[in-house]
Every structure is written in C-alpha cells, then in structure tokens.
C-alpha cells in the first residue's frame, strides 16, 4: 500500500473537494487533512460519501504541498518553511468564508486528520495564527504534534544535502535556483531525505513559535501554569477527540525496506544485530538517534526487559526469539512514535482546557489475506481505522478490502461517534467518558462486538519510555544492570478506577524514572571527576620523577628563554 500511495504531483495542487448532502442546509462541517508523512498522499484517496450521508454533515477534503515543496526550509527568510501548514490554513479560511454556499455552517467546523494529517491539525490548534473562530473542534487519529521529531532543530543542515544535490546554494538566489528545477528533479533529490519525517515543521516565529519539547517540559514541571498556557496558545480553546491504534508499529515494517533493502524480508524476525540496525534509523525524544557505540546485546536486553511481562492470552505468541524480538521492536516504535505522544497531548489538553477531551483506542484486526507476517498481526495497524471512518470507501490504487457485517456495524458506530463529536463536542454520552488527567484518564476501546470503556491508557509505558529512549541514545551502555519491570497492562472495564500511581520502580534499587536519570547523571559527573583526578596524579608523578633525576638542559633552556623575553 505504501508503494502505491506515492504519485508524482504538481505544486499547483491547492484544490479541495466538497461533499454535501444538502446544499441549502446549515450543517456541521468537517475538514479532513490527509496523512502520508508530509511526503506522500492526496485528498482524492479518501471518499467521505458514506460519512456525509449517514452523519448528515458537510465534509471537505483538502490538498496541500508536501515533501520539499511543502516543508523544505533554511530556517531564515531565504526559505522560511511551513508552506504546507500555511496551505492548510488557507484552505480552512476558504471553507470558513464560502461553505455556507454549499449547505455548511461556518460557525461549526471540525478539523480531523490521520497520522501526519493529525499532527497538522494539532499544529493548527497550537498556531497563534489561528483561533477558535476559524474552527471549533479537532479530531486526531494516530498523530500528535508532541512527537519530538516533528520540529526541525537545524533545518539548514538537514536540507543542505537536498539543496546541494539540485545544484543550488543557500544564498540570495536559492529560490530562483529551486524554481528552475522540474518536479521530477526535486522528487529524485528529496525522496530519501524526506522519507522518515525529515521534512517537518520549523520554528519560523510566524506560524509556530515554540519547540514542542519546551511545551512538554513546561507541562511536566509546572503543570497548568501561566507559562504552559502561553506556550500552547489556543490549544485549549477547542474540543478534542483523539486516539491511537493498538499495533501502530506495524507501519514501520512497511517503511524500513524503502531505506534499507536488508529489511525486505523479516518474516522470521530480527537478530540482535538487525534490531540495533533498525533502531538506528529512528530519532528518539530530544536525545538524537541510537548511539552508534551501543552493542547489539545491550539494545536487545533493554527491549526484552521492557516488554518482558507483557502478556495477553488472546494473542498468538511468537515461537522463536527472533520473532519475539521483532514483536517487541514494532510495539516499542508504535508506542514511541504514535501512542505516547497522543496520551501526552490528551493529558495536556484536559489539564489546561475547560473544553471536552475524549480518547479512543482502535483494536480491530482486519481480515487480510495471509502472508509471511500474519503471525505478527494481532490488532489494528497504523491507518486501519480510516477504512471504518470512511465506510470502507477509498481510492488508494491497488488497495481493496472486503468487510463483513460485524465490521460494517463497527464502521457505522464510528461514523456516528465522529460526526456526533463534530456536531456537539461529545462522540457519545453512553460509550465515552471525558478524559481527565489525573482524575479519570479514560478511553473507549473500539472493536467489533461491545465497546469497552477503560482507564489509564499505557500509564506504565509512558513513565518508562523516557528512560528507555535516554538509554538508547546515550553514548555508553551505562544502565545495563537496570531492569525495566513493566506491570501487566490494565484490562479494567471501569472508567472510575483509581488512576495509576506515578511511583514506577526501575531496577533492583526501586528507582523512579527521575531518580534513575539523575543517578545516571551523577555517575557521569563522578566518572569525569575521577578521570581528571587521575590525570592530575599522573602529571604530579611524572614531574616528581623528573625532579629527582634533574631537569634536562633543553627544558631548562626553554624556561630561561621565556623568562628573559618577558622581562626584557
């Protein structure tokens, strides 16, 4: 599906599609922003006609510039960046100004998006260029602006390779040079460089002012403070409905072969060396990539310990160590990239906003044809929920799915939830409870059969993941002896259950996450001090030995010459 999702487009792409059940009505409007990692995808892949008919809403799907044309930046006025986000804003403004002519209510607009489309929706919420008069609600499917790699720290360095390969220079003639290149030339130069979300948002002090890491730090340290609210801008002004799929990491296996052919066939799992190699392709929370000094066994042990206690009797368990290693890899990457950032923005929103906050987890396993990775599929892959949201209508080339009656019922229910939220700010008074951190972090699990209300999503994982990513990115294997004892996942159907405690123990010393990291920092400081002291002792020892033997004439002469020059 990934290979078929990419088709060479044109920079003149700012079109939108309007679907309305009643051109003379005053209906709620839903604007969909497509995903695709900011480098692929298009609005015409999505057909919302079922949602429009069943939900009685107006749906607008939009295009925006992607890849180098939408997100290349030098971090200054030569190439400021964020063009794709500005395109989205322009489309939203057009809808606001004109949708009444198509039966839409300009004062009841909901943005919704999937993956990088969901990230885009959240950036629109965070941008000081917008306010809640432009749109009122936001629905985020498997995507969050709080993914730390969303913000480019040094766009000039990141995009230098693409610019150079096009024969251009970062100077006053840069735009003119780029404009002289064909779409095919730009695509060929940027495809690899943009494939792993390298074409992301920049802090341009216009559309966006603050690094998401600053937002996370402020909320973690200060909670709902004036400073936190200043950083998030209008984020709390909108109703929010957001969620994730339970096997988001399966998506990674489809992307890896695009940059490394050694991952073309992983049906038998990962060796320790493959695990390390795979992880080194991914940046982690404000710590950079996995340190190249890591040993394969260290990384393997870290993930094996992290997921050691995760058991679910309803799932098929891998029969070999290699397959089990691959399962843990996909689960970790899904948590790190999609699940935990989503939970973080749910917590943030519920803490600072008096608007509604709701959460879901999509768990439906699609009935795909059996293949070599069938043993690994136990739930919903990244983007699977989109089939249900759009009533199994899609125009993705080469992709089709035949649903059964139970899946159709789930789709109908999800369409009702999505459109109810757009209309009222509440997907369902009976199927959902408001997400409230820390009092009641509830979410609803979506799958065929009865829907289940649950509490405290991924509490333990969220606390452990920052320590895991710190360990992966650190320069040395300093925490090999720490064990990450993750409790079994909560399987409660009650949303009134007492929230998880913040006192997660790490290792035999029962350290909290913060204590573990501080301990590592202290150990580093001590090691530096000891090294300096050793060097001083060595110098003193050498000097004492030279004094005992008598200084050489060459050394004495050099010192005498220097003294004479200073005295003259």
UniProtKB/TrEMBL annotation:
Transmembrane regions listed in the UniProt entry: 522-544
Domain of life per record: Eukaryota
Carboxylesterase type B domain sequence ranges: 9-449
Pfam families recorded: COesterase
Keywords: Membrane, Signal, Transmembrane, Transmembrane helix
UniProt record similarity statement: Belongs to the type-B carboxylesterase/lipase family.
Listed name of the protein: CEL
